[in-house]
Amino acid sequence: MTIAPPSPSAPGARDAPAAPLLSAQGLEVAFPGRRGAATARAVDGVDLDIMPGEIVALVGESGCGKTTLARSLLGLVAPTGGRVAFGGEPLDYSGRALKAYRKRVQLVLQDPSGSLNPRHTVYDAVAEGLRIHGYTGDEGEAVSGALARAGLRPPERFLLRYPHELSGGQRQRVVIAGALVLEPELIVADEPVASLDASVRGEILALLLRLREELGLSALVVTHDLGLAWNIADRVAVMYLGRIVETGDVEQILTAPRHPYTRALLSVLPEAEGEPVVLTGEPPDPSKVPSGCRFHVRCQILASGEAGRAGVADDCRTKELPVLEGGNRTQVACHWAAALPQAEVPAAP
């Protein structure tokens, strides 16, 4: 492997801020409606940076736009506004440039059974990327090395097996090996443990952490589970209806959340104290984004009168919030949280 995390002892390493490996600026993805229906704003203005060697968790309910955002960052969906940059260079959507980019940024899907061709052996599944990208080295050595790094040891035991002969955790490791074989700099993992038994999830999360430590890999982990973010991420970005609504250091966000939506997501974790917050209704239609704060129609703070007591109820309903910056400082897009000093925001349930 040629990828390594920056040495902390290098001259100036502590002083010079690192540049983002992957950066989205003002990113928008819209899908036109059928037969004159309104355009659906799936991603509606997102700034997001991922630093070298960093694991960022992108968290939100189903339908909030997080998978569309991830696909746009991978170049699978062209943005309708804004831009994506990798290594400081804007992403080029021409076929040859995208092929080179996807060698450096790999996708790991949530369902290993759907990701693997049942007629292909483990060897062929892992070697597929090498063949697509015209690898000229020792293919067998590269495949065996990727399987070993993914925790399938000795790799010779697995090379000629088929997916149906493996456990769910082993299949997910094969998918991860298929990504690692191209020596990427960044992995985008979409719900990487959602389809696995609880007993196996910890092993896969530990694997991702080990790969970051050993190879300097960066990762964007897309999930609906804030508990997973707590266990694996350095930083968390909470997404709602196409926008990042709260972002920052994972411990800061998950121990002292300021946005009502983040607080609601945390309240349903098994270890949470107090009663869970039950949000009314479904996330709004992305073709009909509400005025003001896009969460206000479901917000427990507004419904309880707390926003009114803070003097921001009208702002919640009518005043749009700005797009949060993509950096790593703690930020929140909430009129109520902004109206109160951080020390006065009530503790999360």
TrEMBL record:
Annotated GO MF terms: ATP binding; ATP hydrolysis activity
Record GO biological process: peptide transport; transmembrane transport
Record has ATP-binding as a keyword: yes
Start and end residues of each ABC transporter domain: 22-266
SMART domains per UniProt: AAA (SM00382)
Keywords: ATP-binding, Nucleotide-binding, Transport
Family annotation (InterPro entries): AAA+_ATPase, ABC_transp_ATP-bind, ABC_transporter-like_ATP-bd, ABC_transporter-like_CS, Oligopep_ABC_C, P-loop_NTPase
Signal peptide region: none
Family: Belongs to the ABC transporter superfamily.
Name of the protein in its database record: ABC transporter ATP-binding protein
Species per Swiss-Prot/TrEMBL record: Streptomyces nitrosporeus
